[in-house]
Every structure is written in structure tokens, then in C-alpha cells.
Write a structure and sequence with these properties.
Elements lengths: L3 H18 L3 H21 L3 H21 L20 H8 L4 E2 L12 H16 L13 E5 L6 H11 L3 E6 H4 L7 H14 L3 E6 L15 H16 L7 E7 L7 H6 L2 E4 L5 H10 L12 H6 L6 H21 L15 H10 L6 H14 L2
Parallel strand pairs: 2-5, 2-6, 3-4, 4-5
Antiparallel strand pairs: 1-3
Helix pairs in contact: 1-2, 2-3, 5-6, 8-9, 13-14
Amino acid sequence: MGSPLFEAAKKNASLAYKLDQSGQTQQAVKYYVSAAEQLQKLINFTDDPNMKNLYYHKAMEYILRVKEIRGIIEPSETPTPSSTPSPKSDEIEAAISSVIVREKPNVKWEDVAGMEEAKRALREAVILPMSRPDLFKGARKPWKGILMYGPPGCGKTYLCKAVASEVDSTFFSVSAANLISKWLGESEKLVNELYERAVEEAPSIIFFDEIDALAGTRGGSSEGEAMRRVKTQLLQAVEGFATGDELLVTVGATNTPWDIDAAMRRRFERRVYVTLPEKKAREVMFSIHTKGIPMGTDVDFKALAEITGGYTAADIALLCRESLMQPIRELDAEGALTDMTVQVRAPTADDFHNAMMHIRPSVAPKELARYDEWRDKFGG
């Protein structure tokens, strides 16, 4: 009971329960799922049948609660797990697959700063075919697979959610790393079920984050038979799961496009390079990440954008957070933080310049060169 996995499951379950009881049910979901995944790993590592039984029932309890929250079952319909557990049974597999959630992202197209080339490519590949399917008939076929690649922190996931919000489509968001975890068992069946649902609810966008975890080069010495089956199933699904006129597009995001298997790379017919934000986009990002905080008169976002070349979108968000904290630190150092009559000063240009001493670009030039080389070789 004292293993790190058990303690992690216990902590996640406790957080989930507290959030659930306070009415924050959607936030509770990820902690319920994490607890269930950790308990499933414990089932695989435990020889004691009584402990297997305990872990199994608790995992099913958490997954069933997730299904209630998602509206998949009503609370009154919640089944009681069998007294004879089968930790690798279809029941667990079905329960986990039901947690691959459909969502309608709350990200607007205009919320995406910059990335004009990537936005244009995705508009042509996804938005136009789904908005005007009558124009994409015969030889003018929409793309079936799109690969978004580039350095981490540049907004690939954010951009894909903005695309999904622009069209009336079902958006399936899947973590490739989670899909192949031990908890999910025979993952190729889950891939098949995912695409079956997407066809039923077409038009659909299936977004795989960290697609390299699922679509890496095949045939390695460390690759097991189960992993090979998953990759084969995904190849077939992206190639053309829909048999009729259903609009279904697979979007994969990766920070390491060179790790993608050659056969999978060919399935991603359209490749979109999401690179560092340009100067104008950086200026907008400074405005976004300081929203609601009055700035000092010497703060010039245009000037800050000029000197932050090489920063990712995530780097700029961190830079702003660090800058906005400096006035708070000063109050705390003076012992005046609890004095409600003392007003915090506005952040100044010096705060941003000082923050730049600590928040440096997270992507090295030689790393960018590798992305440029891959783009020159494979397009995007």
C-alpha cells in the first residue's frame, strides 16, 4: 500500500473528490482518470489477488464517475463492478475509451496571434472543406491527414482548437502518450473505436497531441508486437477510415517530426510548420498576457517585441508573468503586502528587461535549424 504509485493514486483521487464535491466536476475528471491509470498499473505489478481486486474496483469507481460527469450514463444507471475482476477485460478498455472526450473548444480564430502562414494552410485544409463541402468533390479532395510540427511552446494545440471552433464539427482530442499506456491495454482497438465514433459524428477532427509517441519509426528492437499493431491500425485509419462522403480529418502535433515513421509521414498529406512568433505577433502576445494590469508609461510592447526575437509564445507568457510579479515582490520585501491601503505600483519597462535576465528563449538556434532542414526536405 505504501508504494509511490499507490500514494500518487490516493493523492489524485483525493483531489478529484474535493473538486467533485465543490461542484468543479470538469476539473475533477483528469484527477479521476489519473488515479484510475495508476491503479491499473498497480494491478499489473501486484501478485496478490485481493489487492488486484481492491485496485480494480476503485479504478472502476473513478471511471464510472467520469462517465456520469460526461453524461455517458446517468448516476442511477451506474453498474456495480463484478466481484470477480478481470483487470485486462473489455470492460476496462470500454470504460477508458469512453473518456476520449468530444469537445467544442472555446478558442476563437482571432485569439491566435500571428502564425499567418500556418493559419492559412489550416484554413484551406480544414475550415474551407468543412464549411463548403460542395466545393470539394471529385478530384478536389480535402486533406485526410495534417501534421503540425515545430518547436514546443509555439501554439500548435491552441491553433488546432481555434480551427475546430471555426467549423461546426466534432473535435476529438487524444493524447497519444496516454493512448499507448499500459492502462489502455490493446490500444489498436481503441484507435478503431475512436475513428468509428468520428465517422458517426462527422464532420469530425481527430487531434493527436504528441503524435510521435504513437507514430514513431517502426521496427526498432524495443518495439513490441502490441505497439506494431497500434501503428498499423492508425496507418489504416488515417489512410481512409470513412467509406462514404463523411468529412473526417486527422491532425497530429509533434515537436519531433523527424521521429515520425515514413509511412505515417506520407499519410499526413499536408504538413504545417508552426514556428516562432514573428515581431507583430509578439507585440500582440505582450498585450494579451498583461491584460487587466495597468502598465507604466514607459512600457512599450512594440519595443519589447523588437528585442524578444527567438522567444516562443510560451516564453513570452512566462516573461510577462515574471514581470508582473516584480511589484508584488517589492511590497512583500517591505512587509507591506498585507496593508490594504498600500497600492501596488504599475510594472515598468525595467521589470520586463530584468525578467529577460531570467526568462531566456527555450529553443536554441541549432534546434530551429533542424526544423528548417526537415521542412526543406519534407515540406510545410
